[in-house]
Design a protein that fits this description.
The protein has six helices and no strands. The chain is an all-alpha fold.
């Protein structure tokens, strides 16, 4: 992210990625406290949501890496200057991911930080 942060064209996306990583760290820190106390049901209650969250952040990281490479080529500091359309489409696809997919981590974090344990079966059976 630091390399992207040094590129005017990618600085905004580097910031969004760093924010998402910090959000992921915060959620993980919140969840780990339950594992440390042996409250494994609470720790794993929304594991599928955590996997979705971490997957989105991981893909954002990969898109930022591709964005860096593409921007280097577009700027002329990369290996080849041919096929600029390909590299420009990489940048546009990265921007699409950051606009439409990365924001999903906000809602996922909100749910994962919520301590109303709806997915843990209590003493009463809940009929839906």
């Amino acid at each position: 992210a630091s390399k992207a942060n040094g590129m005017n064209e990618l600085r905004e996306y580097a910031g969004k990625f760093i924010d998402a990583v910090e959000r992921l760290k915060h959620v993980l820190s919140h969840l780990v406290q339950f594992a440390k106390k042996g409250e494994i049901e609470k720790y794993l209650a929304d594991a599928n949501l955590f996997m979705e969250f971490s997957g989105i952040v991981t893909v954002a990281w990969q898109w930022l890496k591709q964005g860096i490479m593409a921007q280097e080529v577009i700027s002329g500091s990369g290996q080849a200057k041919s096929g600029l359309d390909f590299y420009e489409s990489k940048i546009e696809t990265m921007k699409f991911f950051y606009k439409y997919e990365l924001p999903k981590t906000l809602a996922l974090a909100d749910t994962l930080l919520n301590t109303e344990w709806l997915t843990i079966k209590g003493d009463k059976e809940v009929l839906m």
